[in-house]
Design goal:
Layout lengths: L14 E2 L2 E2 L1 H12 L6 H14 L22 H14 L6 H4 L5 H11 L4
Antiparallel strand pairs: 1-2
Helix pairs in contact: 1-5, 2-3, 2-5
Main location: mitochondrion
Organism: Ceratopteris richardii
GO cellular component, one term: mitochondrion
Length: 119
C-alpha cells in the first residue's frame, strides 16, 4: 500500500485510476523504513551513488520517482546492468524474474530494503 507524504517539498502525487504514482510509493517506503527498519537514507545514498557512476544517467535527473527507461533513457540491457550493479553493491542474489521487475528508483529501493545489505 502506498502512502502520500504530506509535508515534503516534493510535489503532491496524482491519483490515476485509483493508483498513486511511484513517488507516492516512495514516501510509503520512507514511512515504513523510518519506523524501525534499516537506515533508509543510507540505502538511498548508496543507490544515488551507483546511479551517478552509471554513464548513461544524468545526475540531475535522479529522483525517487525516476523510471529507468522513461526518465533516464535506459534500454533493457542498460537496466539489466544497473540492476546487477545494485545486486553487487547490496549483496543481493535474485532470480531473473524478480530482477526484471526492478524498473525504477522506488522499486529498486523497496527491493533493496527487503532483500539486501550494503557490502
Amino acid at each position: 500500500m502506498c502512502y502520500e507524504h504530506k509535508g515534503s517539498r516534493a510535489p503532491a502525487t496524482s491519483k490515476k485510476g485509483g493508483t498513486q504514482s511511484r513517488q507516492g510509493c516512495f514516501f510509503g517506503i520512507l514511512q515504513h523504513v523510518t519506523k524501525g527498519k534499516a537506515s533508509f537514507l543510507n540505502e538511498w545514498e548508496i543507490v544515488v551513488n551507483v546511479l551517478k557512476k552509471f554513464e548513461k544517467v544524468e545526475p540531475s535527473t535522479i529522483s525517487a520517482a525516476a523510471h529507468f527507461q522513461q526518465n533516464f533513457g535506459l534500454n533493457n540491457l542498460d537496466t539489466c546492468e544497473l540492476v546487477m550493479a545494485f545486486q553487487e553493491k547490496f549483496s543481493i542474489k535474485s532470480p531473473d524474474s524478480e530482477a526484471n521487475k526492478i524498473d525504477s528508483c522506488a522499486v529498486a529501493i523497496d527491493y533493496i530494503i527487503k532483500n539486501g545489505k550494503p557490502s
